[in-house]
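Appendix B: a complete holo record

For completeness, this appendix reproduces one full record from the ligand-bound portion of the collection. The bound molecule is NAP. The inputs are the chain sequence and the ligand SMILES; the output is the full three-dimensional arrangement of the complex, encoded as structure tokens. No fields have been trimmed.
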Amino acid sequence: MEKHRLLITLFGATGDLAARKLYLAIYRLYKNNYISEHFALIGTARRPWTDDYLREVVLNSIKDEIDDQAHAEEFASHFYYQSHDVNDVDEYHNLQELALELEEMYQTKGNRIFYISLSPSLFPIITQHIKGSGLATEQGYNRLIIEKPFGNDLNSANELQEQLQVSFEENEIYRIDHYLGKGFVKSLLNLRFSNIMLKSIWNKENIDHVQITLAEEVGVEDRGDYYENSGVSKDMIQNHALQMLSLVAMNEPKDDEPESIRQEKIHILKNLHQYDSVAELQENVVRGQYGASESNEYKAYRDEDKVDAESTTETYFAAKVLIDLPEWEGTPFFIRSGKRLNGKYTTIHVQFKATKEGVPGNRLMIEINPDLAYRLYLNQETIGYTNELKQIELSYSPDEKEINAMPADYERLILACIQGNLNNFNHWLEVAHDWKFVDNIQRLWKEAPKPDFPNYPAMSSGPKAADDLINKQGFDWFD
Ligand SMILES: NC(=O)c1ccc[n+]([C@@H]2O[C@H](COP(=O)([O-])OP(=O)(O)OC[C@H]3O[C@@H](n4cnc5c(N)ncnc54)[C@H](OP(=O)(O)O)[C@@H]3O)[C@@H](O)[C@H]2O)c1
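The structure of the chain with NAP bound, as generated:
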């Protein structure tokens, strides 16, 4: 196996994401020998931590996965800390000095990954100084990993993109959407295009509609201030839901190159039908906000910390989305996501048309979270003295051994970046088209009458209007 040589500089090393996900992901890569002696990480943030303290934090983050303490400590010894306020220009020169020293020590061949895990408002200042202070290498590669959200609307995303472009080429920018690192999202293309049975019927002639659901049981927790400016349409729909839609709808790429795959996704996102009036929006999009649960055990969104008592922020979104392309003419894609729903799951259902009246259409269910499964629902004659039909299920779920061997989202994505594989990262144009779709909805919501919130109790299945939306298609929502 190829052992990669690289230096990671992690901005936001004292943050929540680093402690909960990133150190563990990097440790797994170390345990699996993708990185080893020729790897080092510089963690930076403002807090005055030391190398030793960072190493303690790292060891604590990975403690549940350590099976060889000495090996884990050896891993942690590759971590260095430099206190740094990203607004302070001089500090970048200190970072560069440390980087050069570590490159020499670990023989990392000048390969540098800059992982920015802090507030998006700070992305441009960092990238500008990475270039300006000579922190970008001239020997190996420079790759930039950035966290979501990429802007708050198309305008701010555009501005951010312009600022990043000054310092990094598009093919050096790895925009993270961790849903694209999930095993059964990543494998969607193989499922679709490596099976003639699916490939040949995956079209408007045979598919009645598609349902994509990202349901959460949790409320806004302590993120009320962030959520007030985001709502579910920006938090989940603009990125994860539309990304999954593009993977379900895209044409087969001409090869496995990131450019080919991303171009096909862009083609779908660029042609999402834009609702052109409030009436069309109301016909096709449902927004909701949770009230207290019927038992009163869970409070209403408006009573959450840091949330306006009159808030009109949506915690639920469901939409019938059409794609203005001949190949998908008349095939709706229903997407929905919400907080404080009565289940936590991410699923895709592809509902095929019926072969004749009175016979249910076949359905393929892809379970992405928390369980992993493919379930295919077929019609089968009931065994006995009748020729009535019943629905049977053919299913596959990975076993425990397979699940344990499966990389976690961040592990998969960081490895892909190390390997220079952009397949599962968003191209700028994907982000831009996602924003265009959501911005249009936000604009029409402003023109529409004020929503009558709350309109669903916490821990329920969501607003009644969302059921009506799918019922018009002749179906119910599938979990
Ligand atoms: N947490 C998650 O589960 C999650 C999930 C998806 C995406 N994200 C995204 O990941 C990014 C980080 O999230 P997080 O939850 O880790 O945030 P966080 O816990 O608030 O951490 C922010 C980090 O930024 C550092 N920082 C803030 N201002 C700084 C400055 N001027 N100079 C240098 N460092 C500074 C903080 O350290 P100091 O205070 O020590 O400076 C801290 O390390 C965000 O873009 C977020 O949207 C997070």
